[in-house]
Amino acid sequence: MKSKSFQILQYIILLSIGLGLSWMFFKNLNINDLKAVAVTGNYFWAYLVMIVSLLVYIFRVLRWQMLIKSIGYETGFFYTFAALSLGYFVNFALPRFGEITRCLSVKKRYQIPFMQLLGTVIIERVIDIVSLIIILLLTLILQFNQISDFFRENVFQPLYNGIIAKIMAGDRMIILFVIAALLIFSIIFFYFRKTIRAKSPHIILQFIQGLKEGLASISKLKQKRLFFLYTILIWTCYYLMTYFWIFVFKETSILTLGACLAILCIGTIGRSVPIQGGGMGAYHFLVGQVILIYGVSGIVGKTLAALIHAGQTFFTFAIGLVGLIIFFIGYWKKKE
Fold this sequence. Notes:
There is one protein chain. The chain is an all-alpha fold. It has one domain. About 85% of the residues lie in helices and about 0% in strands. About 30% of the residues are buried.
């Protein structure tokens, strides 16, 4: 019972954070101004983004099939595509559940052990994290001044001015707020401590086992170069998706290749936050602020951030629907 309550509480907290960040993003944004900027866009570039987004799915399917084949199983492209697209769709509403959904979908169709499939997904995530770290380091080298300005203005200064400086000045409201927040966190932790203790070893062991299976699948790959080529193509497509979006508006079309790299990194971090709606609020705020660093007006930057997120949301839902259709067609054919 406590386990279920913990999951519900986690869902509510994450949803509240997402809604809170979204409110902070839109609260000072005049919708009429946003519409006025949006109608000036050249949306030919948005169609190119959708084509490149589809390529990301294709390369991810091909890469995942290589991992599955390395553990001794074969899967059909379209059904694997359907499982992947459905997984991303589920992740949109329930972060981190999409990986389980796509593994269960493939397990049911091809009778592949779940833990082995989970291992391939974990190794995918590890490779993606390593890739993001490499790109982030490259961005820091090429765009150090802009990135340092971003973190100073959006992390360190707000943290110091909003909390630390006021605590040092003896602001009672802030001190009471911090104490209350720590008290609430402590109460939640102690209430669910048995659930956390019971689940943590199991989750850690499950992760280690999955990682072992994933590493084993990498070592068994017959075409390692092709595997890493797919990884490079995936991240190249991610970059092009950002690059094409900046040409929608005349004001953002002046952004440099380095600026696009910074938007890609910060935006990926925003999407990686386990908040419902594809990192809603977090993505909007982070991308809007990083665009502002490059001299683009606030309204245009926020409009572009909102459009990128809306476009990706539409694409995720559309491809998720395609995945469901593929599942239904496969089910009908199986019954005939």
